[in-house]
Design goal:
Blueprint: H1 3-9, E1 11-17, H2 22-37, E2 41-47, H3 52-55, E3 65-70, E4 73-79, H4 84-93, H5 105-117, H6 121-124
Amino acid sequence: MTQETNKADEWLVVCLCAAWCGTCKQYQQPFEQLATQFPQMRFVWLDVEDREDVAGDLDIETFPSVLVAQGAQARFLGPVLPQSGVLARMLQSLPQDAGARPAQAQEAQELLQRLLCADDLQEVLR
């Protein structure tokens, strides 16, 4: 399997947060623990205010909100309950549901493309 194939199939889980958000602060450690539970997926903590260049004009009204993508295809974008079990169940089921797409598919795809095209991708995707 080539590295390009790996990138095309790579799962990306991005928590869209804000430093001022108390719920986000409480959710960060459980989110990081999920990263150890799903080592085949890449987890990203993205502060939407620090990284407006990547978040764009995305209007997040509920924190935490999450973007889940497989390769270059967004599979979910929206708020999740701040309980790691909710996101864990979603991450277990999405690979089984090839047809799953976010309700706001265009917005999700645009966000994903900005993430993938960021000049400092390694910094953004930590």
